[in-house]
Structure prediction request, 209 residues.
Amino acid sequence: MKQLTEELKRLLFPERTVLVGYRGSVAHEMYVPNTDPNSIDDVDLMGVYMAPKEFYIGLGRGYKKYNKGRERFVGKYDVVNYEFRRFVNLLIKSNPNVMSMLWLKDNHYIQRSTYGKLLIENRDLFSSKKAYQSFIGYASGQLHKMEHYSTEGYMGEKRKALVDKFGYDTKNAAHCIRLLRMGMEFLLTGELFVARSDAKRLLEIKLGK
Prediction:
């Protein structure tokens, strides 16, 4: 996976960004390039940024503005950016998607500033039994989407074809299995294995094999 140009970084991420990494299929070693006829993947990225200092000092004006992730789509890139404090709050809740950002392979990080490195170096501080319910909840959500899919809007033609062929959303099925396995591994070992050693099998599930 090629690194991003500085121009593209400025387009995708806010000022004062402290951490950027791949998420989704790239991070899980399951990415199928769009040149492949079987590809149903975007390139998913996540960034963590600092809000202006006025947000942290005073009476908290602008809280709603920074309380949610900012998602944007640029070409093949699907990017979500979180304000630093919001990101930490999600870590405390053991959000699987956000936790994964602290457990990436080195070559899956695009930017790590001092504050980003501090988060990674102290990732064990966010290990919690809450992970059990969180991973179960997210896996259940994927199971529901798998069975109650919608082919409108977000779903590309290739993915629609898989749904029509198999009668369920195979991509959500792969997400469900992956989340359950990652959750069990984390509870047993205290480590989150984002880059999947079972990527081949998960990719087969994703493609309906």
